[in-house]
Amino acid sequence: MEKYICQTCGVQYSEREEGPDRCEICSEERQYVNPEGQTWTTHKELVQSSVYRNIIHEEEEGVYSITTTPKLGIGQTAYLIQKDGLNILWDCITYLDQETVDVIRGLGGIDAIAISHPHYYSRMTDWAEAFDAPVYLHQDDKEWVMEKSSRLHLWEGESMKLSENLSLHRLGGHFKGGAVLHIEKGTEGLLMTGDIIQVVADHRWVSFMYSYPNLIPLPAFKVAEIVEKVNGLAFNRIYNAFHHVVKSRADEVVRDSAERYIRALKGTLFTT
């Protein structure tokens, strides 16, 4: 029996004799199946290959990025957030070796894991076991959980407090339960967005999509809803899932970007 990992998205499945016929997450329009066909790996194979390692970098006080090199699966970055005496892992990555465990334990371990949406579920149950931590996912995305665990906690509604200055907010959009993590620091607050709000190549802007690899946009009304939901949050910076950062005026960037996006959908931004 093995826990098989989809090589395209990096999500791990419950133990079974052989890999499933298809990856449920990659088989719908927000993701994709490798044109060469569905392939699987295991954690043991990844570690024994000696190809991968995790780079842990302090981005700023209380924020550490964790990125696998070379790229594995989607290639997202996870973040270890230190606030209110807690260590919160925001989003998750597939690769986890003993060196990573040792470094994170040296930083105080992980008290809880919170994940923005199913594309980053990866090996969340194994991370939870390694650090004896609960995992918080939004109830609206429960159908995408491919590995059941008693450590998974489904939260409901529009927001959830993790501590005095840490809170989860459901924005929807990319996924119905798509969430962001807000870190209160007065006017210098942070918003960890995964790709529910995506920092684009020009870091002065963000964008919003139903499917990023297949370029399916969100409707204008949904983008307007997302902006309305974050309007009440104080944040100056955004970290996305791919190590891109809006370093200042992030609240204004979200509003300006949404206005541009909606004008483009309505055909009033440009002539072509």
TrEMBL record:
InterPro entries the record matches: Metallo-B-lactamas, RibonucZ/Hydroxyglut_hydro
Gene3D superfamilies registered for this protein in UniProt: Ribonuclease Z/Hydroxyacylglutathione hydrolase-like
MF term (GO), any: hydrolase activity
Protein name, per record: MBL fold metallo-hydrolase
SMART domains, alphabetized: Lactamase_B
Organism of derivation: Halobacillus litoralis
Statement: the UniProt record of this protein carries the keyword Secreted: no
Keyword annotations from UniProtKB, A to Z: Hydrolase
A Pfam cross-reference name: Lactamase_B
PANTHER family, per database record: METALLO-BETA-LACTAMASE FAMILY PROTEIN (AFU_ORTHOLOGUE AFUA_5G12770) (PTHR36839:SF1)
Metallo-beta-lactamase domain: residues covered: 75-243
